[in-house]
């Protein structure tokens, strides 16, 4: 009877769960066999009205993957699209927990594969985020929308953010847009690079994804990978010819953030890739050497000096050399490094309105202006010839 009901579905437009085949007013079970030709009557049942307890029962069965119970309640027949708290449906719960057979049953019963919950997510979102490749495959085979607009993020972006390689492959094979971002403007490559998912980054690059999409702040995947210290991801992006010197809207370039974060291996990798070691960044026009000094990363300072970074280059506002920054903050190890590199002494720079660096040091933490002046006179100093 089961096969016969399935074959009748395209004809009557009703799933097997709502069909009843009668012989002599007796309902035949799904496992009944016909040994001879006989006259049958087809009855199509409406959904039963479900109490809250029965709704909760079906939701719980789907969530736990209890197939017999799910089958029993669909045969009642109850609507597979009943929703509970936060508009969670049986299909949403089964997909979220990776219960493939329960998902298959619910889809067969006519569950809406694109129905949103209270968070405006659909089953494909939760299955992708949780890495349930089998469920994702079932939903795609059922023609679920691979690019639903209801949620702030696409299923592909969620899979990339969590590092689910097989799910990302399925979605890309189904034609998911690898450039579509979330509500914050981050593309799948941003998400994978930020989280350090090297294989997913490789998959996206091999699939032809833009290697340097910009988020609303001008951040590219290479920059985000540097912020979080993901060495292998940075290496992949550099091999894909991502711009090693492209900064965000604040002017922060990959070498700046790697230096400030103290990621020495990343700094070396970027230097080997010929990143600009003296690039001025942001409103203060600080170099990577300034950034490493301010964050007290002596090992990074040493790398930059060995690569030929200009230790005499002053920042913009306030105008300070790396050595002045180190002395101001009493970073003894870095002071020694910067002094050992050259016998040139630090300079006191004067801004156009006549305010010298001692007052800036006071505003940035000295307890009294006199201490700042004392610091200046304690250092061997010469005035810039171009100071005005």
From TrEMBL:
Source species, domain of life: Eukaryota
InterPro entries in UniProt: Ankyrin_rpt, Ankyrin_rpt-contain_sf
Positions annotated as ANK repeat: 86-118, 119-145, 151-183, 184-216, 217-249, 250-282, 284-316
Gene3D superfamilies on file: Ankyrin repeat-containing domain
Pfam families referenced in this protein's UniProt entry, alphabetically: Ank_2
Family matches, as PROSITE patterns: ANK_REP_REGION, ANK_REPEAT
Keywords: ANK repeat, Repeat
PANTHER family: ANK_REP_REGION DOMAIN-CONTAINING PROTEIN, ANKYRIN REPEAT, PH AND SEC7 DOMAIN CONTAINING PROTEIN SECG-RELATED
Protein name per the record: ANK1 protein
Organism field: Symbiodinium necroappetens
Source taxonomy: Eukaryota, Sar, Alveolata, Dinophyceae, Suessiales
Gene for this chain: ANK1
């Amino acid at each position: 009877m089961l096969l016969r009901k399935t074959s009748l579905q395209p004809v009557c437009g009703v799933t097997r769960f709502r069909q009843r085949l009668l012989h002599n007013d007796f309902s035949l079970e799904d496992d009944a066999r016909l040994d001879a030709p006989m006259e049958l009557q087809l009855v199509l049942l409406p959904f039963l009205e479900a109490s809250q307890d029965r709704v909760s029962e079906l939701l719980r069965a789907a969530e736990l993957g209890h197939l017999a119970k799910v089958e029993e309640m669909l045969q009642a027949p109850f609507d597979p699209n009943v929703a509970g708290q936060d508009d969670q449906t049986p299909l949403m719960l089964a997909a979220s927990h990776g219960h493939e057979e329960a998902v298959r049953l619910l889809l067969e019963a006519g569950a809406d594969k694109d129905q949103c919950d209270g968070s405006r997510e659909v089953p494909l979102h939760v299955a992708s985020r949780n890495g349930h490749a089998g469920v994702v495959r079932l939903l795609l085979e059922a023609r679920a929308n691979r690019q639903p607009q209801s949620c702030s993020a696409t299923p592909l972006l969620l899979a990339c953010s969590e590092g689910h390689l097989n799910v990302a492959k399925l979605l890309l094979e189904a034609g998911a847009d690898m450039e579509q971002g979330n509500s914050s403007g981050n593309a799948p490559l941003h998400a994978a690079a930020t989280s350090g998912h090297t294989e997913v980054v490789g998959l996206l690059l091999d699939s032809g994804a833009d290697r340097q999409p910009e988020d609303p702040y001008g951040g590219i995947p290479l920059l985000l990978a540097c912020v979080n210290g993901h060495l292998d991801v940075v290496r992949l992006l550099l091999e894909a010819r991502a711009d090693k010197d492209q900064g965000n809207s604040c002017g922060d370039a990959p070498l700046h953030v790697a230096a400030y974060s103290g990621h020495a291996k990343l700094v070396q990798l970027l230097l080997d890739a010929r990143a600009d070691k003296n690039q001025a960044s942001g409103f203060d026009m600080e170099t990577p050497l300034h950034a490493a000094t301010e964050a007290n990363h002596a090992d990074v300072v040493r790398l930059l000096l060995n690569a030929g970074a200009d230790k005499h280059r002053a920042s913009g506002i306030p105008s300070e050399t790396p050595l002045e920054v180190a002395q101001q903050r009493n970073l003894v190890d870095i002071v020694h490094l910067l002094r050992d590199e050259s016998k040139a002494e630090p300079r006191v720079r004067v801004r156009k309105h006549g305010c010298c660096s001692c007052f800036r040091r006071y505003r940035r933490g000295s307890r009294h202006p006199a201490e700042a002046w004392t610091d200046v006179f304690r250092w061997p100093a010469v005035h810039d010839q171009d100071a005005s």
